[in-house]
Design a protein that fits this description.
mainly alpha; single chain
């Protein structure tokens, strides 16, 4: 799950940076405000890559997705991109968990096969 979720978050990191560039063109927003908000969101993306498998990591990821969609009120294109990244986040979490379960199952089977093979070798 970590690989898929981290890939999505790194993509969001870049999209947030580009959205910051677009938001700078809005005369109602100060450059410092745009880059403070964008910078915090970008740093959160990077930090979340490291904690996504810890308790609450996925929940923080969902909060980031909601914030990304809400940023559409400033940069309207972010409504579409936010929904797209929300779908990617869901897929990353959903399929990442399935991959983790399959890996655990294969590891258990390999350990069981190794244990039965070792006990069979002792008997010979």
């Amino acid at each position: 799950m970590r690989t898929l979720c981290s890939s999505t978050l790194i993509g969001e990191f870049f999209v947030i940076g580009f959205a910051g560039l677009v938001a700078m063109k809005d005369p109602d927003l100060s450059t410092s405000t745009v880059w403070t908000v964008s910078g915090i969101a970008m740093v959160l993306c990077l930090l979340l890559c490291g904690v996504v498998t810890r308790p609450g990591g996925v929940v923080f990821g969902w909060a980031l997705q909601i914030a990304l969609v809400a940023s559409g009120f400033v940069v309207p294109t972010m409504f579409v991109l936010g929904v797209m990244f929300g779908a990617l986040w869901w897929a990353s979490v959903h399929f990442g968990r399935k991959i983790d379960e399959a890996k655990a199952r294969f590891a258990a089977q390999a350990a069981q096969a190794g244990a039965s093979g070792a006990s069979g070798a002792d008997a010979v």
